[in-house]
């Protein structure tokens, strides 16, 4: 993260530099001490033994984990598409001119933004079957995630649409477009480009939510980790590897969001070159 | 007497556990957030890296994975805590990263002139942070911090997945006995909504009182 961090301190002088060196040495010592304690704990309980880590160098275990990761990504992808579509509809509903639509979409968003996803999962697991609604494991995970995330997406879309300069919509109206056309041809394309980074950040949260497959016993990454751990009895090792896999995927997504942010939401194509505003004294110069 | 009302006390206990977990965790996460945010802007490059790594790791791991790692895997190393404590530690560590980022965003809104003025009158880095920067930074991010607290409230429900009997888990338990899913889950949902509303009202009040209008 190399965003221009504003400095709250001056270029250090000789004394400051000495203090920074002392703090660095102390920091290194503290980190080393922490690592030493961790390694000691691992060693004392025999968790460092080579044969407790060797399985994670073999292909069958990795194939199992990668299939699990694939299931996580699939659940995340389906959830993303469904909740983005539903979220967009909800955002349009909240901005609609019909009062009933506004109220309905608003109530949905406000309710599902403040109810925990786990509660929604318990509802699909234990309540809906009583009313004859029994999904497959995949949908038992995806449906509650869509219900919760569509509310989050709706808020992102609404903020993006409202943040767009009013002049854009007014210009659309002025050339005789109908409200739906203004939204589709003028407002949405611009709002979506500007929203791209926050939408990708929301993806990280959504991908983390799929770990609730652990509760549903849908074999995504975390639940597969648990199955593997109870089979091999390598708890620490398995969960650490699972954590690293989550970290790699999510850190790449976060990085991608930051790249989009730096590029104004455009990954390819024309990158708007900042046109320098005309200097006022340019005109005053005598033309020769 | 309605047989259902006997379960009301049980649901009440669940609600109290959720509230306790939320309050304890919010305070711990807020303190941790201040520390990590300070690390991320301090003059020592190594400590800045430590803060950055902390935020990146904690924000990119699912909370449930952390809870499972802490509750089920750490006992292998002989490290065990009571369940409630484990859940509180993990959730505080996780949300601390979010508080740290919010506070850092607040620090970035404080004008450069403020830090320069603090240095000009001879305050050290920690003094200028304590007396000049942080009080203004906090006031700029009351609303975002309220949103993080609401997210934290919802995330305390994940403690149910590792065995803490809080509101979500109680609702589930009562439903398994009573088989009244619609009533019980709606009630639990309403309780969460009311708590979130309460946090929203408190932060709204704080904001009106404390926010600096520039």
Task: Summarize the helices and strands and which ones pair or pack.
The complex is a heterodimer of chains A (288) and B (214).
Chain A: H1 14-44, H2 50-53, H3 59-94, H4 99-113, H5 117-127, H6 137-163, H7 166-174, H8 179-209, H9 213-216, H10 221-232, H11 235-262, H12 280-284
Chain B: H1 6-41, H2 45-60, H3 63-73, H4 83-109, H5 112-120, H6 125-140, H7 142-155, H8 167-178, H9 181-210
How is this structure best described in words?
The complex is a heterodimer of chains A (288) and B (214). Chain A is mostly helical and 288 residues long. Chain A has a domain at 64-262: Orthogonal Bundle (MetI-like fold). In chain A, 74% of the residues lie in helices and 0% in strands. Chain A is built from twelve helices and no strands. Chain A has helices spanning 14-44, 50-53, 59-94, 99-113, 117-127, 137-163, 166-174, 179-209, 213-216, 221-232, 235-262, 280-284. In chain A, helix 7 (166-174) packs antiparallel against helix 8. The longest helix of chain A is centred in the first third of the chain and has 36 residues, at 59-94. Chain A is flat and about 75 Å long. The model of chain A is unreliable at 278-288 (pLDDT under 50). Chain B is an all-alpha fold and 214 residues long. Chain B has a single domain, classed as MetI-like (MetI-like fold), CATH 1.10.3720.10. Helix content of chain B is 80%, strand content 0%. Chain B has helices at 6-41, 45-60, 63-73, 83-109, 112-120, 125-140, 142-155, 167-178, 181-210. In chain B, helix 2 (45-60) packs across helix 4 (83-109) and helix 7 (142-155) packs antiparallel against helix 9 (181-210). Chain B starts with 5 loop residues before the first helix and ends with a helix. The model of chain B has no long low-confidence stretch (mean pLDDT 90). At the A-B interface, helix 1, helix 5, helix 8, helix 10 and helix 11 of A face helix 2, helix 3, helix 5, helix 6 and helix 7 of B. Chain B: Residues 15-203 form the ABC transmembrane type-1 domain. Chain B: Belongs to the binding-protein-dependent transport system permease family. HisMQ subfamily. Chain B: The chain crosses the membrane at residues 20-39, 51-73, 79-100, 140-162, 182-204. Chain B: It is found in: Cell membrane. Chain B: It holds the Pfam family BPD_transp_1. Chain A: The chain crosses the membrane at residues 20-44, 64-90, 111-131, 137-157, 185-207, 227-249.
């Amino acid at each position: 993260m190399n965003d221009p961090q504003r400095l709250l301190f001056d270029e250090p002088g000789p004394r400051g530099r000495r203090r920074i060196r002392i703090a660095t040495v102390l920091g290194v010592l503290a980190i080393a001490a922490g690592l030493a304690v961790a390694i000691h704990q691992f060693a004392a309980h025999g968790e460092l033994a080579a044969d407790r880590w060797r399985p994670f160098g073999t292909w069958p275990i990795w194939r199992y984990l990668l299939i699990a990761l694939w299931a996580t990504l699939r659940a995340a992808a389906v959830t993303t598409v469904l909740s983005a579509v539903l979220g967009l509809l909800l955002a349009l509903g909240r901005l609609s001119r019909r009062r009933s639509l506004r109220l309905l979409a608003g109530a949905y968003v406000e309710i599902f933004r403040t109810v925990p996803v786990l509660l929604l999962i318990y509802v699909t697991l234990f309540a809906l079957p009583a009313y004859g609604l029994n999904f497959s494991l995949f949908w038992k995970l995806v449906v509650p995630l869509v219900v919760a995330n569509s509310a989050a997406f709706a808020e992102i879309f609404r903020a993006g649409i409202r943040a767009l300069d009013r002049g854009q919509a007014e210009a659309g109206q002025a050339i005789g477009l109908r409200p739906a056309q203004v939204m589709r041809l003028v407002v949405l394309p611009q709002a979506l480009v500007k929203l791209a980074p926050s939408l990708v950040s929301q993806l990280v949260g959504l991908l983390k939510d799929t770990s609730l497959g652990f509760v549903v016993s849908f074999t995504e990454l975390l639940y597969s980790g648990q199955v593997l751990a109870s089979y091999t009895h390598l708890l620490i090792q398995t969960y650490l590897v699972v954590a690293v896999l989550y970290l790699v995927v999510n850190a790449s997504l976060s990085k991608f969001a930051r790249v989009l942010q730096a590029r104004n939401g455009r990954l390819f194509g024309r990158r708007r070159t900042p046109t320098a505003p005309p200097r006022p004294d340019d005109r005053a110069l005598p033309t020769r | 007497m309605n047989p259902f009302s006997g379960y009301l006390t049980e649901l009440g206990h669940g609600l109290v556990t959720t509230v306790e977990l939320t309050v304890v965790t919010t305070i711990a996460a807020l303190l941790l957030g201040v520390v990590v945010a300070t690390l991320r802007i301090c003059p020592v490059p190594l400590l800045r890296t430590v803060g950055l790594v902390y935020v990146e790791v904690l924000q990119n791991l699912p909370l449930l994975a952390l809870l499972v790692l802490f509750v089920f895997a750490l006992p292998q190393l002989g490290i065990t805590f009571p369940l409630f404590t484990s859940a509180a530690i993990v959730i505080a560590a996780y949300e601390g990263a979010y508080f740290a980022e919010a506070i850092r965003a607040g620090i970035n809104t404080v004008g450069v002139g403020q830090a320069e003025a603090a240095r000009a009158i001879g305050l050290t880095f920690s003094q200028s942070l304590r007396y000049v920067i942080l009080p203004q930074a906090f006031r700029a991010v009351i609303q975002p911090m309220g949103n993080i607290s609401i997210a934290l409230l919802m995330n305390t429900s994940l403690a149910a997945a590792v065995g803490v009997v809080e509101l979500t888990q109680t609702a589930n338990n009562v439903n398994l006995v009573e088989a009244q899913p619609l009533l019980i889950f709606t009630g639990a949902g309403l309780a969460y909504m009311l708590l979130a509303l309460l946090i929203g009202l408190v932060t709204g009040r704080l904001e009106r009182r404390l926010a600096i209008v520039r």
